[in-house]
Amino acid sequence: MTPTAVPSYAEVDAGVRRAIAAYTQALDDGRTDDVVATFCPDATVEIPGMGPQEGVDGSGAAYAQGRPRRPQRHLVLNPLVAEWTADEAHATSDVVFLLKGKEGWAVQVVGRYEDVLHRDDADGRWRFHARRATFLD
Fold it and tell me: How far, CA to CA in Å, does 100 sit from each of 71, 74, 110?
């Protein structure tokens, strides 16, 4: 068995950004199955207001409950991959949550995501193994 080669920073960064974008767009569109597909089967999710979730069943149910009722956008900014190996990456991103109301778009939340992603050997895609959000006051 040959060891897995460590991908370059550019390869890991691109894969992590793709996972973040896939999650964010699916979340804002209300596509729960696609949101859940961005997670490892044993993932943990900690987002204020959602409570800690474990595994795809727990997170799937929580995300289904939180489907958007109005147009929304999560703007994920400044993603930074700080550590990585062939199959794990640690990333930090800022997030701004916008919600459209009668007066137009308004900032609802500003915060940060701390993520651990694992690379799936079957398809090479990066998926969230742990996602933790903190919101600023």
Answer: 5, 12, 16
Q: DSSP letters along 1-45, please?
A: -PPPPPPPHHHHHHHHHHHHHHHHHHHHHT-HHHHHTTEEEEEEE
- Cα dihedral value 31, 42, 9, 115, nearest 10: 70
Average pLDDT, the chain: 93
Using the 8-state DSSP alphabet, how is residue 86 labeled? S
Longest pairwise C-alpha distance within the chain = 60
The 10s digit of each residue's pLDDT in 45-102 is: 999 988 888 988 878 888 888 889 999 999 999 999 999 999 999 999 999 999 999 9
According to DSSP, the residues that pair with 29 across neighbouring strands are none
